[in-house]
Every structure is written in C-alpha cells, then in structure tokens.
Amino acid sequence: MDQETTLRNNLWQIAQSALQAVEPQACIRRTLRREGERLLTEGQAVDLSRIQRIIVVGLGKTSASMTVALEGLLGDRISAGLVVTTDGYSVATKTVEIVEAGHPIPDERGLAAAKRIATLVDGAAKEDLVIVLISGGGSALFTLPSAGISLTNLMSVNKQLLRSGARIQEFNTVRKHLSQVKGGQLARRASPAQLLALVLSDVPGDLLDAIASGPTAPDSTTFVQAKQTLQHCGLWMKVPSSVQFHIEDGLCGNVPETPKPGDLLFEQVKNVIVGSGTVAASAAQAEAERLGYHTLLLTTTLEGEAREVGANLASLAREVVRYGRPVKAPALIVAAGETTVTVRGTGKGGRNQELALSAALGIDGLANVVIASLGTDGRDGPTDAAGGMVDGETVARMRAQGIAPERALANNDAYTALRGSGDLIATGPTGTNVADLCFVIISQTASGTPGACK
What we know:
This protein is α/β, with parallel strands linked by helices and about 450 residues long.
C-alpha cells in the first residue's frame, strides 16, 4: 500500500472518530441524566415533581435524533412536542412529532412548523418545562417572518446573503431581525415557563446567540447592525422593500428589539452546549495520537474565505515538510469552524470543496501529504458531496482529465474539478452537524517540491 493510500485511510479513520464523538444521541446522554424526579445537567437540577407539563420543541438537522435520546430519558412525562428537521433526517419517535422542511432556503413547510411550535410555546405556563432541541440548520428550518414580510421576501434575502460571502454571525444578525422567533424571541414567548435548551453547536466559538440564530439566547445585535450588514454586503438596495421598511421601523422604535442580555426573562432559561466542533476536533486529535501522529489543534474558530484558508493550510503542510514546524512529522493538524465562499462564478461546489481545491494547488508535487475538509453533516453546498480530500497528485489527475484547476477555482467549480480527480468526499447524511472539519496529515517521509512542473 503506498503512503498516500495509508494517509487517506488513517485520515478517514480519524474523521470517523470525530463524527462519532458528536453523534446527537450520545451528546444528549453525556449531558443530561435523570435520577428519579430530578433532571440533571451541568450541575443544575430540575425537580420534575413540580412540573405540570413538559413540552418539547426542536429545530435543526439533528434535532430529530436528539429527540430520540430525550424520549428515552423522559418517556411518558412528555406532554406534547413538535420538532422540525431537514429532508432525510426524520426518525421514528414515540411522543414528539417530527416534520421535515427546506434547507438552506426556507419553505412553506418550515413556516407551518414554526407557527405550530410558536403556538405550543405560547401556551406554556409557569408550572411547565419547555425543552428546546437546537442544532445547525435551525435558522432556515424554523422560519416565522416578522409581520409584513412574506416567506418569498425572506427567501430572497437568504439567497442574496448566501451568495454575498457574509459570515454566519452577519447572516444571523439580519435573520434575527426579520423573525418572530429568532434572537431570544422563542424564549420570550415561552416565559414564564422554565426553559431548557440543549444545543448541538455548528458555530465557531459556540456562540449561543448565533447557533440557529439564537432562539433561546439573549441577542446583543440590533436593527442598526442588521441594516449595516446589508449595506456592507451591498444588498440594502437589493432586498425587498418590505424588509427595508421593517428594519427602518425597528430603527425608529416602532418594532420591539430582540431581548437583550440582562432581560429578566432569561432567569428562567438554561442553555446547554451538548456537542460542538471543539468536541469533534479533540476526538480527532486523540485518535491521531493513538495512531502515532504528533498533533496540533490549530483552531476551533476557523473562519475566512475558503480558498484563502485552503492556501494557508497548504502553506502549513509545506512548513512541516521543510522545517518540522509547527509540529513534527508524522503529524496531524486539525481545525474546526466554518469558512465562507464569495460566489463570483457559475460553477458548482461548496465551501469545503473550494477549500480542498485551493489546498491541492498549494501542495501540488508534495509527496505523502493529504489535506481534507468536510461538512460534518455530510452536505457541502448544493451538492451530494461532504467535501474533498486532496494530495500532491490531485492537480496532475485533474489536468489529465482536461481540467484546469485554477480556472475551476476562479469559477467556483470545485465539485467538477474534484470529481474529475476522484477526490470528492461523499458520506451521505451523517446524522450529526457541528462545525466543518479540516485536516492536514503528513507522513514521516513527506517530501517533494510543491508546485513543480509536471
């Protein structure tokens, strides 16, 4: 078996360990337990004997799977529940209803589900416990636009933001101020009931107000920032007039702001991170060390333009090969986070594929080095791939297929290029969803001249 094949096999084993560490049901069971009439999490307890009704609602790609673990703990104590997930992620449950909706662009199903969830939560009383299961994708799946804004208007804004290269925090600042449930507003609706939110984070830094647009977390962003984001992205004059009018009404105080840190309603709210990119990256690091690699956890807050991050990871690989730093070979460098793509071309791909294609150009000709980037949910952009895994021969394989990788990168066509070289990662739905994971794996014998002519 050649060295690249060994590296690829080891890297896939490492990635699998990372995914298993953030399997949603395992995350719930690690974080939440029941002892008689006490429900325990993070050193705090809910006395179930004082709870009249338990209402379960959820939003996000993994919320259905999280529901299964929760039902295993609470059984028939659950009075009612509704969870919205994306197509293909529904699972069998006993008490809580699961529905599917569109992602990443909201649809009528998500709107209908959000209305039903809002009604459930609006009816909660002081003696009730509302449990909210939150995971990545919840922003699109849990859609209840502000008064005067249609779903079509909201879809238009989402599409424009997706293509603009806006960071997830910027994206969510706008979404929270065009919604009746995001940015802490679901918690506001649940008050005065106790609320426990169990969150599987897909956001760099695990920022509660950014994950699924923070429906149960205090929101520090404002209408001012929402307008500034649209202006910064060059979209203010392109979004529907209903969106402009609503934001201007918010600026004038005619529309209430989202609930802020310090609001008394959050005294009844407990938000708990049950899993994250940090957990996945740490598990990858542990598995790599078990296999004999020196490891470096580079960051769990990775951000930036995907092609630039790919070039930087390639540069790190060259540094290890030439100088044995910042970690000695054999080595694994791991990073977790979420990059962005500013779409300027007409090609097909996703941020992980674009990162991998850029990295391939940076390690062209470098032997015994493999770089991979994948979405932990198994989906990368509007494709059937999770990402890409490239080595020093990837570019040569592309050229042999008549593909110019530089042109493909310029056209945002990473999917076509990586498919041509056989370097796509295709997992199908993984059942989890935390941050994207990026890996650089280097053997003891790595060598070569990056960028050498072929």
